[in-house]
Design a protein that fits this description.
The structure is a single chain. The N terminus is likely disordered. Helix 5 packs parallel to helix 6, helix 12 crosses helix 13 and helix 13 crosses helix 15. The chain is built from 15 helices and 16 strands. By secondary structure, it is α/β, with parallel strands linked by helices. The strands form two sheets. Strands 5, 6, 7, 8, 9, 10, 11, 12 and 13 form a nine-stranded parallel beta sheet that branches. Helices cover 37% and strands 23% of the residues. The radius of gyration is 21 Å and the shape is globular. It folds into two domains: 125 residues, Urease, subunit C, domain 1, CATH 2.30.40; 257 residues, Metal-dependent hydrolases (TIM Barrel). The structure holds zinc ion (ZN). Zinc ion binds next to loops. Zinc ion (ZN) binds next to loops.
Length: 440
Amino acid sequence: MSDKNSPSNPIAVYGSLLYFTADPMTHGEKACHHHSKGMLLIENGRITYVGSRSMGPKPPLGSTIFDYGEKLILPGFVDTHLHPPQHGVIASNSTELLHWLDTYTFPEEARFSDPAHCEKAAKAFFDELLTHGTTTLLAMATVHSSSAEALFKEAHRRNIRLITGKTLMDRNAPDYLTDTPQSAYDESLSLIRKWHGKGRLAYGVTPRFAVSSTREQLEACGALLQKSPGIYLHTHLSENHQEIKTVKELFPEAKDYLDVYDRYGLVKERSIFAHAIHLSEPEFARLKESRAAISFCPSSNLFLGSGLFRLKKAREYDIPVGLGSDIGGGTSFSPFHTMAEGFKVCQLLKEPISAMGTFYLATLGGAISLGLEKEVGTFAPGLEGDFVVIDPKTTPLSAMRTDRCKSIEELLFVLMILGDERFVSATHVMGEQVMTKRPF
Ligand SMILES: [Zn+2]
């Protein structure tokens, strides 16, 4: 644990606190906690009190006070799958995933062979992220060590909770973006030794997907996981029909797509699979059994025409699910946008989700899927003080609409549909205000 950048003063935060302590889709509204005149106390970056302001203790002498009035204060958003190096190719038109990768993504990722570009891009990326209220993320770097290195360095400087890793690709990608099983292993290991467990950082072994890794490289991934307990596995799974067909051709010995990873020891707790749209029953069952998690990336899945993720089915199997913006296949950094697109996917499947359900996925659900619920995703004494301040009355339309809301569910629904980064008034990391748009 490092409190390197934590403020030395205790912090008292006043506002309308809203957070989940369980899944509202199974536990109902009692999973949602709301203190309209609430208070958070934070010392050394960690929460010491959460609850009603009038019932709580007096803030310690010398506390820095942030009075956010009637604004909503939620735990910082958790983005469980995105590609920071694709920041620059968001909103690039394509018919489907493999064409999109070849046309836009790979040429853009090539720019990250230059460490100076990596550093500049990491700064711009984290600025954007905090503007949207996201404070915890699982991210894919490029194949270059320098890309992961720059993300770790910048996240550490800002004290942001980041899991990332160098992407591994030793086939079916342009020569300028490929590594080898040996260099993938060596470079990953050196990054793990340097960054894993440092402050709020963790390492994720990151084969891009089964299409772009040979058996030898997947074996190297398994060896890295064996060697360094506690690190993550982060990859894509079953996003697109053409991709699934290619995986079948490349790995005829595997029972299904998930089995390709399973054969190399990559399906386990702390394994996060992005997309998982077209899974078979045995694949769902195996994910449940292994305690692996899924990142649901609705805006990307709709944008690339990949398909509709079956959230209800994953929930029936009790598989942890978080939300991913999947920048740059995804269309916005905004968790509001990702939630709204997730809501629409569930509508198309005739398996509706409540607004509380989507906010849960964007906070505590995401944290649980990353095994971080003892650190972030909700408010409780001992947890890290990451939070986002939201102004429901940001626009005349939202002010008019939220004035009519009669319940928290209705208020969250309006925010999910109308909200965007303009609604994020401030973002705090370990108590410290790291982004604000207006003086408070
Ligand atoms: Zn992705």
